[in-house]
Amino acid sequence: MTKQVNKADPQNWLQQYGDLLYQYTLPRVNDSVIAEDLVQETFLSALKGLDGYKGEASEKNWLFTILKNKIIDHYRKKSSGLSVMSMPDLQGADGGWFDEEGSWVENRMPKDWDAADKPLERKEIQKIINWCKDHLKELQQHVFTLKYMEDLDSIEICKILNISSSNYWVLIHRARLKMRDCVEKHRL
Fold first, then answer.
1. pTM
2. 165-186 helix and 138-148 helix, angle to the nearest 10 degrees
3. Does the domain formed by 106-186 have CATH 3.90.226.10?
4. Span 109-138, pLDDT tens digits
5. Which among 6, 81, 135, 148 is least surrounded, fewest beta carbons within 10 Å?
6. Domain ranges of the chain
7. Using 50, 70 and 90 to split pLDDT, how confident is the model at 144?
């Protein structure tokens, strides 16, 4: 039994994968121009590396892998221009969500989202989540995106953004709380 090898077809990349790659990129970078640039860079990198494409993965998966690396590089470059805040005081950082024992305050407990089973309502919730993410502080947004959209672990994120582990945990904690608060306020 011979293994099927996929062939790359660069002439059809834009038509076949352009919109998919762009739709994947846009919510991760929050800027249509940057998203377009990253997709173009993906195609250019793929063309340059065409000789290295052995066809073991599908063409689509190969392009998405290149794109994911481009997105990570984008955040790496962006983080070099950000000033990393010193370790903030965590007192009051939870916005009144928890009591002294760490339990949920009664009126701040998460609400049930029965809309998760309905496609239209799920789509609306996704819009709200994206809007809320776009309104996080820049470094929180980067951490949140890399963690929950790119599915990177904390060590990788710290390296990419050049932040300490303790700073990462403060940023992700605050981003989660702000996201939850924002989504709860703007949910239908």
1. 0.65
2. 90
3. no
4. 656 655 556 777 777 888 888 889 989 999
5. 81
6. 10-80, 106-186
7. very high
